[in-house]
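Narrative of activities, Objective 1.

The group set out to show that a structural description can be obtained from nothing but a protein's sequence at a throughput compatible with the screening campaign. Below is one input-output pair from the validation batch, recorded exactly as produced.
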Amino acid sequence: MYIIIIIVASAAFVLLLITLQFFVNPQKISSVEKLFKQGRTSQAIKILKNILIKEPRNSAAHFLMARLYMQENKNELALMEMKLVESCGITENINELEFRRTIAGLYETFNQNEEALKEYVLLLNSDPNNAKYSYKCGKLFDELGKADTAIKYLGKAIELDPTNADAHFMLGSIFYKAKHLQEAKTEFEKCLKYDAAKYDAYFFLGKILKEGNDARGALQVLEKAQKSSTFRIKALIERGSIFMNEGSVDNAIIELERAIRIRSEERRVGKECRSRWVRYK
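Output recorded for this entry:
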């Protein structure tokens, strides 16, 4: 018992010394960086809070605090800190590209697409040959309802990196929504060529084959689409519909019953999760 008390007291004393060190010279936050790298985020956050009490406009401290909050999956607090960095000013000891990549990702997390797009446009201006930035701009333009502009950025992303499966999928999705099925089919096939585990693409490819009256091909592709967490149930329903059109009622019933069972299980799990959340809230 005495040993435990001594250990706890020693740890508290060390933390106090580190904190006092920052009160003496709050500009130096390199030691907090070390704590961050060591995974001691809670301790680092406590120290940074003390620094920011004395220096509320310390951009570097706010930026580090944001990264610490992200490490602890506190993304809302992280975004607040990143906004404070911007309002205080991006100083020379902050990597601006890292800052913009980080805040863009946080804006995406909270579906603030216009703000995220502004950041990715700035990043692309600084690095015009970056396929990832072009893809992100294209994706966000599409989500903002600007498909024509999205196509240009996605095309540029593919030009820079022809193996970018995400860009091919996004471009295929835009063509599919516009009813340009042949162009969509080509993009989905390229997507799967470079990433066979992109199961969402199988669903849309199956829909295109079905609409083209290729029942056998559609069934094969939709079988793979069942691995998609997003389109699993819809893939089963589409397969059931094809079997029904083909006069294979028994097979149609099997697929549709599977869809019903999965949906029921998802609702049961969702209800259980909500109940646990309310209980522990």
